[in-house]
Amino acid sequence: MGQNFGILAYQFTSKIALIFISARVDVNSGKKSHDKIGSERMGPGDSSGYGGAMQQDKALANLVSEMRDQSISATATALLDDDMKGFGVPNPRILIVGCGGSGNNTLNRITHLGVEGAVTVAMNTDKQHLDHTRALQKLLVGRHITKGLGAGGDPSTGRRCAEAGRDMIKRIVTGADLVFIASGLGGGSGTGICPIVAEEAKAAGALVVGIVTTPFHVERRQRMARALEGLESLRRTADAVLVLDNNRLLHYVPNLPLDEAFSIMDQLVAEIVKGIVETITLPSLINLDFADVRTIMQNGGVTMMLYGESDRGPEEVVHEALNHPLLDVDIKGATGVLIHVTGGSYMTLESASQVVDLLTAKVSEEANVIWGARQDPSFGDTIKVMAIITGVGGKQIREARLQPNILGDALKLNREKAKTAYKNLDDFSRNSREFTRLD
């Protein structure tokens, strides 16, 4: 490329030199003629000097046009409008991988919601559960080890099954740009499979985002210990990990039927994934692309994803996002923030900017903040915000390796550390119900 450019530059300089030498001769000739003829060539009808200048300008313009065409044809990285038609749409390949029973349930909810621009993949050691999962691709791992009957709550068995199917996992994630891994931790299949999927996706060059749930306290310490070990394995490999605590359901929706209560957590995960995917795949007025998401989330560590929606203005939207009862991690030490605001046709620039300003009020001045906005007529007066906040939980949680009990304390997952958080959550739920009755 450099050699071609040098040749073109040389040709361009040579031709420019010839034009100006020619122009100088013409001007000098004209000057001599003027000396001989005198005032006879001074009349208003004489235009020989002006015509010569016109010809020189035209020759120079033709030369510039010729050099432009040559440089474009020699440059493979530039596309004109006509060339772009055959280039196709360079959309990133996005995978949503559900590992184990909880991850497969999440895929069912995501399929029900409909996520534009993503491929869903279900992986499990339990064939019966896999048969009832709605996904575009399904993979039964370790069928010679478990006979399709599940991992029996043993993460080492789940990992052995994933290792046995590593080649198939590699084929599935190869070529992907962004891979979401949804899983419940503490059991056998999800806890064992998701770190292997993360390793292969990372090796394939994809941005890897884990969205995991932790066990109920009634499942006792052994299951929580297994969950934290699995979380530490996933955290070391994935670019970003969002941790959701199932215990919050007991305080937020204790009286809902079991299926509806779990569907609330699945709905939250589905909305987060849908929000990130459509932020990338759908055009916006202030556009966010895959490179923006990678910038914020690459090596982002433990991640907070906020979601809020309201028709009462920016303040209420931000209040809902920051006080979501199922999402609670300190955002003061955040290193990166990606925000996308969606509103109706009449959403103003001031409203969108106010949402971003309120969300980032507690974030450090050094944090990298990228935001986008889209108008959708179907929203009416409603404003929806989706935010990805990386590097949360303080300096301790960003260390390369953590003991499971320290990781649990930092994320408020251990039973003793969670009591204060749940008391605050009870107060929030009570105030929300009172506010609803007053409204």
Number of helices: 17
Which stretches of 5+ consecutive residues score pLDDT under 50? 1-5, 16-47, 431-439
CATH fold category name of the largest domain: Rossmann fold
**Number of DSSP E strands:** 10
What does the overall shape look like? Answer: globular
Rg from alpha-carbon coordinates: 31 Å
Task: Say which CATH homologous superfamily of the largest domain is assigned.
Answer: Tubulin/FtsZ, GTPase domain
Class based on secondary structure composition and strand pairing: alpha/beta
Secondary-structure element series: HHHEHEHEHHHEHEHEHHHEHEHEEHH
| Mean pLDDT metric | 77
Strand adjacency order, main sheet: 3-2-1-4-5-6-7-10-8-9
N-end to C-end Cα span = 68 Å
How much beta, percentage-wise? 15-25%
**CATH hierarchy, class of the largest domain:** Alpha Beta
Main pleated-sheet profile: 10 strands, mixed
Helicity range: 40-55%
Number of domains: 3
Q: So, CATH architecture of the largest domain?
A: 3-Layer(aba) Sandwich
